[in-house]
Every structure is written in C-alpha cells, then in structure tokens.
Design a protein that fits this description.
170 residues, globular, 4 helices, six-stranded antiparallel sheet, alpha+beta, Phosphorylase Kinase, domain 1
C-alpha cells in the first residue's frame, strides 16, 4: 500500500472532470479517496477513484460499481451519502458527501478513550450492523473509516439499541 499512497499525491491540484482535487484522504484496496471541489455545484466532496492500474480489470470495475450502488441505497449518519457515480476518461469514480472528522485510528493515536467515548463509538458501530446485508462482494472494510460529529434523524428507530433496562426479558 505504500506505493499506492505515494501515487495518490500525483493527482493533488489536478482536475478530474468537473472536480478539482485538493488533497488525499486515503487509499485502500478498492480505490483512492480525495478531498475535491465539485466545480459545478461549488461544494467540497469526497471523490473515490478506481486506481488506474485496475481500470481495465472487469471484475474490479464490477465490484466498484456494486459498491457505489449498495452505498447509494443507505441513509445513515456514519455512512457517506453517494452523490454521483460515473466514468471519466476510462476511470470509474464515486462522489460522496465529505465527512469531516477523524478516523478511529487517528483518535486512538491521541490516547485511550474514556468510557463514555468508547460507548459512543460502540453504539455507532452497532447501528451500522442493523442494516440489511448488501451483496457487494467486498472484503471487510479497512480500519480507519471516518467518523462524523453530526447526527441524523434518518436512522430508523428500530435500529437504535435500547438500554438494557428497556429490553424485554428473554
């Protein structure tokens, strides 16, 4: 992955379609993610590109498309909203809401979490587990996904874990 991260800096400051790439956010098995400016709508976005090295691989392309379609069906404050999916000059891309915040990895570098913060992180992870399984044929996510400070009223009430004292006896 070190080679992948180094190659991400080549795009900084360049145009990709109507997106101006401002910075690298991360790199993983399925793509490179950049902070970009959508010049059409004048907003900051996260732009995920399928790496050029795999642009001709039909299996990788199909998996990337499945990921875009699956993510676009989800509505949750801890999952970036998909705004657009497409192809420019043979490169597949996904445009998502930019979620400012720190990754769990970044947070843990600052030191141990207190009990309340640990509970908040675990509650957010539990909510994500309440979504129906989507067939993305994608390996487990890499550690270090971005967290968000905002909350949304879009989560279904049935997906919110109840405190132990409110649960029915088994």
């Amino acid at each position: 992955m070190a080679g992948t991260v180094q190659s991400t800096h080549v795009m900084k400051g360049k145009l990709f379609g109507h997106f101006h790439i401002e910075d690298t956010l991360g790199a993983g098995g399925m793509g490179l993610v950049y902070r970009a400016r959508d010049l059409t709508l004048d907003r900051a976005v996260a732009l995920k590109l399928l790496p050029a090295a795999t642009a001709a691989d039909e299996l990788a392309r199909a998996r990337f498309e499945r990921e875009a379609r699956a993510a676009s069906r989800l509505d949750h404050p801890n999952i970036a909203t998909v705004h657009e999916y497409g192809e420019i000059d043979g490169r597949l891309f996904i445009v998502m809401a930019l979620c400012d915040g720190e990754s769990l990895r970044e947070r843990l570098k600052r030191g141990p979490c207190g009990a309340a913060e640990c509970r908040e992180i675990l509650d957010q992870a539990a909510l994500l587990g309440s979504f129906p399984k989507l067939d993305t044929r994608k390996p487990p996510n890499q550690p270090g996904g971005r967290s968000q400070e905002r909350r949304s009223s879009h989560a279904h009430p049935a997906s919110v874990p109840r405190p132990p004292e409110a649960r029915a006896p088994v």
